[in-house]
Design goal:
Distance between the termini: 68 Å
Strand content: 15-25%
Number of helices: 7
Strand order of the largest sheet: 1-2-3-4-7-6-5
Bound molecules: zinc ion
Oligomer: single chain
Radius of gyration: 26 Å
Number of strands: 7
Largest sheet: 7 strands, antiparallel
Helix content: 40-55%
Structural class: alpha+beta
Order of helices and strands: HHHHHEHEEEEEEH
Length: 264
């Protein structure tokens, strides 16, 4: 196998679509060719990144059902006979696309695609919010796991707020809520959606609350329903031209109380 042939088969190989003989040849070639090995490693890495949490979106529950519901109902004549119990051979499985009568009509296909497009259009904003919430949860988890909760550890907002000066091109609103049972414990820089944001860290008993803050984009109405991702609650709100989002494993009720304090 030569390099052009290797590159030609690289995608199907990594997708596990090659037959054994070709797959073995691919392995043999990449073992002996540094350039092709590097190329396949880079592509593997890209695939891994793309399938990772913040970038990969699962279709929301019910989407398949909604698309199915939008398809034309089959007339009785086109309904296939009941299937015999599967014998596992697979050869007798009913394949609708092999049956002309059961094929989707062009109109059905168009309406299905239209429903899909409309669905995606409506969900796009939700997806972006979900992606952001996912990134925030990832940041939150990382800050706890890596024991990198703050770059500046202080319960004094007069220490935390100036710390951000020169590191961000905005000055996040920083307040301490020790008296209300939500002490400020520090702050750090984070990146969300490719932009540097302020992360303010609060505690409630043993729970950590990460509050992310960045300037609101124009046209951002700030409304977003609270979400629960991987067991973490995510709440968004807006204030004084800022967008804020809190992430915590604290129960939703107390996190809500905290957010109300932050909104004041
Ligand atoms: Zn090669």
């Amino acid at each position: 196998m030569d390099c052009p042939r290797f590159l030609e088969l690289l995608h199907p190989w990594l997708d596990g679509e090659l037959d054994l003989v070709n797959a073995l040849e691919m392995e043999r070639h990449s073992d002996g060719c540094g350039a092709c090995l590097a190329e396949s490693a880079a592509l593997r890495d890209l695939k891994a990144r793309l399938s990772h949490g913040a970038l990969a979106f699962a279709a929301p529950p019910g989407l398949a059902a909604r698309i199915r519901a939008s398809l034309p109902v089959a007339s009785p004549a086109s309904v296939p006979p009941a299937l015999p119990a599967s014998d596992g051979s697979g050869s007798k499985r009913w394949r609708p696309w092999h049956r002309p009568r059961a094929r989707l009509g062009a109109a059905g296909l168009v309406s299905a695609l239209l429903a899909l497009a409309l669905g995606f259009w409506a969900m796009n904003a939700g997806f972006r919010r979900d992606a952001l919430a996912g990134e925030m949860v990832a940041c939150h988890v990382r800050s706890l796991q890596a024991d990198h909760l703050f770059d500046v550890a202080s319960t004094d907002r007069h220490t935390v707020k100036p710390w951000f000066t020169g590191k961000l091109d905005f000055s996040p609103p920083v307040a301490d809520f020790s008296e209300e049972g939500f002490p400020l414990v520090g702050g750090r820089l984070e990146y969300l959606g490719g932009h540097p944001v302020a992360a303010l860290v609060y505690r409630r008993h043993l729970h950590v609350i990460n509050v992310f803050c960045w300037p609101a984009a124009s046209g951002d109405n700030g409304r977003a329903t609270p979400k629960t991702l991987q067991g973490y609650h995510v709440v968004f709100w807006s204030r004084d031209g800022f967008r804020l989002g809190a992430v915590s494993d604290l129960n939703a009720e107390e996190l809500g109380q905290f957010v109300e304090l932050m909104k004041r």
